[in-house]
Amino acid sequence: EPRSAWCCLAWTLVVVTMNSLVFFMNLLLMFVIFTIVLLPTIVVVYFGFQCHSRVLHSAARYCRSILDDNSSSALIILGFVIMSPLIVVAMAIYCSLARRLHLFMCFQPYSRAVYKGVKWRWYEEGGCARGWNTQIKAWV
């Protein structure tokens, strides 16, 4: 049966808050994984741009003695070339971790706030809590 207007508003705030927290947890996890996996690319491109004379041209000793414009350009190109496979690896790691942790099962439907007696999806389907059901998939 439908909830009253004030009760529906309160439950809507609860559902929106919970879904927002789950979204930001997913976003934080994705940021951490992508940062760790793409760290070699970030470092290589950073040093390439730092030592190139037309970009930053740092006065650091390694820029003057080891890296000239040609080697800085090579570092920049290498960084962008290795970025594509590392993005694929980072996305595969994130997707497998999200699937293993059932992160997408934590999102709650809006009908939870509108109707009385609707159980939490993670309780009903076995995700995002104790006693996970390994047969349920978060996506099709």
UniProtKB/TrEMBL annotation:
It is a multi-pass membrane protein. The chain crosses the membrane at residues 27-49, 74-95. Keywords: Membrane, Transmembrane, Transmembrane helix. GO terms for cellular component: plasma membrane. Its main location: membrane. Coiled coil: none annotated. InterPro entries: TMEM88. GO terms for molecular function: PDZ domain binding. The keyword Transmembrane applies. It is found in: Membrane. Belongs to the TMEM88 family. PANTHER family: TRANSMEMBRANE PROTEIN 88-RELATED (PTHR28628), TRANSMEMBRANE PROTEIN 88B (PTHR28628:SF4). This is TMM88 protein. The lineage of its organism: Eukaryota, Metazoa, Chordata, Craniata, Vertebrata.
